[in-house]
Amino acid sequence: MTGGTTLRRVLVGIGVLVGVWLVVPTLVVVPISFSGEDSFAFPPRSWGLGHYATFFTESSWLTSLLVSLQLALIVTVVATLLGTAAALALDRTSFRGRGALDGLFMAPLIVPGIVVAVALYAAFLGWGLIGTPLGFVIAHTVLALPFVVVNVAAALQNVDPVLGRAAAGLGASGWATFRQVTLPIIRPGVLAGALFAFVTSFDEVVVSLFVQSPQLQTLPVRMFTSVTNEVDPTIAAASTVVLVVSTALLGLVALTRRKSTP
Q1: Per-residue pLDDT reduced to its tens digit, 17-47
Q2: pTM score
């Protein structure tokens, strides 16, 4: 018993250290975003909101932010619809190649991002989708789809097949059964998948670098350009905005999953 308690404390300690290691860079970026100086000096010698004013007024930053938000919203809708339909189809059918199909859906999570980016670039180059809104939507949907499928598939484990058969026996159509019986049960999983899809699209940079154009850039791409080509502390404000949005949405995911736990 004592040995198990000691091991648990060691694991908790390691987890805390890893968490601190991951959070420390944030503790540097956030204060710099409120610096009143045009440099990355830390700790700041003066304070102000100038970097945020630049971020929300300069056309290049503001345009990239709006592009990312609009793209993330579209991808969320598309990925949620397709992912929910795919999860339902996989849950209700059984065939010899199902394992391979499951692996295909999970491939974007397993294959390195740079490999996916190169493959999409090669395909989009032939299809004329480089630097187009449609190309961005397709690329980000490919990356977001697995998160929806996983969350909805997990939620479907709580659906008793007897409920569907009972509804059908009472004369309900397939759509009515899904809308009134299945959907209320799996709604937390659908919402969690949608939130993950939004965060995936909003934060994506590797694939976006391959499919972007000078006229169409997402916020992460604009941030990457700022880091590599210029010394602009505005990126600290941009990083803080991305951090706040992503953390808030992931917090919503945690709350959604907690509600879905029986």
Answers
A1: 988 888 887 778 888 888 887 777 777 788 8
A2: 0.84
Rounded Cα–Cα distance for residues 52 and 49 (Å) = 5
What six digits make up the tokens of 41? 């000096």
Strand partners, 216: 213
User: Smallest Cα–Cα separation from 166: which of 157, 176, 154, 158?
Assistant: 176
Question: Six-digit token pair at 116?
Answer: 């996916």
What does the DSSP assignment read for 156-171? HTT--HHHHHHHHHTT
Tokens of 152: 């909805």
Nearest Cα residue to 131 out of 68, 198, 209: 209
Torsion of CA 136, 60, 244, 110, to 10 degrees: 30
In order, the DSSP letters of 138-207 are: HHHHHHHHHHHHHHHHHHHTT--HHHHHHHHHTT--HHHHIIIIIHHHHHHHHHHHHHHHHHHHHH--HH
pLDDT surpasses 90 at 158:
no
Find the mean pLDDT for residues 190-197.
89
CB-based burial of residue 173 (10 Å sphere; 0-12 exposed, 13-18 middle, 19+ buried)? exposed
Grouping H, G, I as helix, E, B as strand and the rest as coil, residue 216 is: strand
